[in-house]
Design goal:
Layout lengths: L8 H9 L4 H12 L2 H20 L7 H18 L7 H14 L3 E2 L6 E6 L4 E4 L5 E4 L3 E7 L3 E12 L8 E4 L4 E4 L3 E6 L5 E8 L1 E6 L2 E6 L2 E6 L4 E6 L3 E4 L3 E8 H12 L2 E4 L8 E7 L3 H12 L2 E6 L2 E5 L4
Parallel strand pairs: 6-7, 17-20
Antiparallel strand pairs: 1-2, 2-5, 3-4, 4-6, 5-6, 6-9, 7-8, 8-11, 9-10, 10-13, 11-12, 13-14, 15-16, 16-18, 19-20
């Protein structure tokens, strides 16, 4: 690399691969903006990277082959104009190491994509930009995490998106496009379902169907009817699941809470008296044992948990 450069080769490789975090990306862009020589160097590297990506869809990382291709393209570029000298062999080797660490993708000079599929059970994954995804059974997605973060989804997935204002995160289904910067939300778009649903747990998203758009905030959802071709906003319900581990109650009546705990944990939970039905729970649980959940409920409403038998519990007290 240019001797005056304060940016190391690995940082430039991550930037061009689209895997830099926001502070590093800002540092690279500030470096490029500080001097036209730096800007020319970055642009030359970008051309080399893009040309090689189109020309070499390799099944695995081959540094020597990559270096030969880069040398050739640098020679071609030299005929068109000045290319800033750089330690290209060290740069390409660093890029290869980074590519080898990216999550389940076809990387470096091939398409920078990730494919996930879930059959009989949910699949949990962390994408290269640190976004988390839980893919529901019977679902499939393809993620392109280069300069633009683009997800193509068939089925249902819950996302916790790493914030990156320079690279919006967009989920495409057959009819609906969902764009976010950093938030937690779920898209349900099974091919056999009449309704496509987008639910927001945190942050804000934009849902678009052709020219029609709605902006959703936490606690809201949008429903698109494939038959009526209508996009409508609605509030989330008192009971919401997020992924396969996160359970959220919002002013949920205690009988609704108990029924969900019985379904999820395979246990029996009894209410000691009728007035308990007036209790309304607002709480979020992330894969806690049922005993912990019941104790939180008891502490919230001044109740007691009685363990009657294995898998059988009683909530007793005065109620609400």
């Amino acid at each position: 690399m240019n001797e005056r450069s304060p940016i190391d080769s690995e940082a430039l490789a991550r930037y061009l691969a689209g895997t830099s975090d926001a502070p590093e990306r800002e540092r690279v862009e500030a470096w490029a903006a500080s001097d036209t020589v730096h800007a020319d160097e970055l642009e030359a590297l970008r051309r080399i990277w893009d040309d090689a990506a189109e020309a070499m869809p390799l099944p695995e990382v081959d540094v020597d082959a990559g270096w030969r291709k880069v040398e050739q393209r640098m020679g071609d570029a030299a005929g068109r104009g000045t290319v800033i000298p750089l330690n290209a062999r060290r740069w390409i080797a660093a890029a290869a190491v980074i590519a080898g660490l990216l999550f389940a993708g076809r990387l470096l000079f091939g398409p920078r994509t990730v494919e996930l599929a879930a059959t009989g059970a949910s699949v949990h994954g962390t994408l290269a930009d640190s976004s988390r995804v839980v893919l529901a059974p019977g679902s499939r997605l393809t993620a392109d995490l280069g300069r633009h973060r683009t997800i193509r989804l068939k089925g249902e997935a819950y996302f916790e998106v790493a914030r990156d204002t320079a690279r919006p995160f967009t989920v495409h289904t057959n009819e609906v496009d969902v764009t976010v910067l950093g938030t937690a939300f779920e898209v349900s778009a099974f091919d056999t379902a009449r309704v496509v649903r987008v639910r927001v747990r945190e942050g804000r998203v934009q849902v678009a169907v052709g020219p029609d758009t709605v902006v959703l905030r936490a606690g809201e959802q949008a429903r698109y009817d494939r038959v009526d071709h209508q996009l409508q906003r609605a509030a989330n319900g008192p009971l919401e699941h997020w992924g396969d581990k996160l359970l959220q109650f919002d002013q949920a009546p205690l009988p609704v809470v108990v029924a969900e705990l019985q379904r999820r944990y395979g246990v029996m939970v009894e209410l000691g008296n009728g007035p308990m039905a007036a209790c309304r729970l607002t709480a979020t649980f992330e894969d806690e044992p049922v005993e912990t959940v019941l104790q939180v409920i008891a502490d919230t409403f001044g109740l007691r948990v009685v363990h009657l038998a294995p898998g059988r519990y009683l909530l007793e007290g005065d109620g609400c």
